[in-house]
Amino acid sequence: MRPLRVALTDDEPLARARLARLLREAGCEVKAELVDGPSVIAWLRDPQDVDVLFLDIQMPGATGLEVMAELGECRHCPPVVFVTAYSEHAVRAFEAAAADYIMKPVSAERLAKTLARLGEAGPRRVDAPAAAPQRFPVKAGEGHVFLDLKRTSHFEVEEEVVWAWASIQGAPSRHRTAWTTLAEVEAAFPGAGLIRIQRHLLLRPEAVLGLRPLEGGRASVRVADGLDLEVSRSVTPKIKELFGL
Question: For the modification 4-aspartylphosphate, which residues carry it (predicted)?
């Protein structure tokens, strides 16, 4: 078992020290601390033994986005998590294939979510095989078929029956599972990051296509064409934070 190996860059000494401390407190091993764009480019031109790079966007010499453009198709570059105080860079960050996007000042809670999203919240086994696809059975006539969790947008419980919503041939539809409560679904996929957005709705965040604010501090998320889900007022701040809003 070994901790997640990370590198970080920030031209502000206090911000750089804070992020390094939070990463170490989260159980990560900080392998490098860089101070500007050119130093990151030079460092990344050689294969590096790190799992994730936390990259500031506003840096002297070259911005984080310019760093990514300069490197182009870098096969040995680690996944990048952008860290910045400017929310307007979010779209361009994800267009650059960023693994995540964190707003400053970075909090321990937000950082933990990023590490969990990367699937590396804790120590990991060296050379561990990739996890098998997470599938589950749903009713199909007199038998069952197996759905991949990655094709599922959300789960809905109704009269002690849990329905899985998935897009089959482009159209969202619901499928009856063997579960009777959403707690059973959460127990079946403990590392999937599912979020209870209503008492009867369990959302897979990766399925969200868009978000629209509603009155009363609530929000609506779109998971498929013509299919929107209302998020409760208490969960809306968590959803917005998750997507850097």
Answer: 56
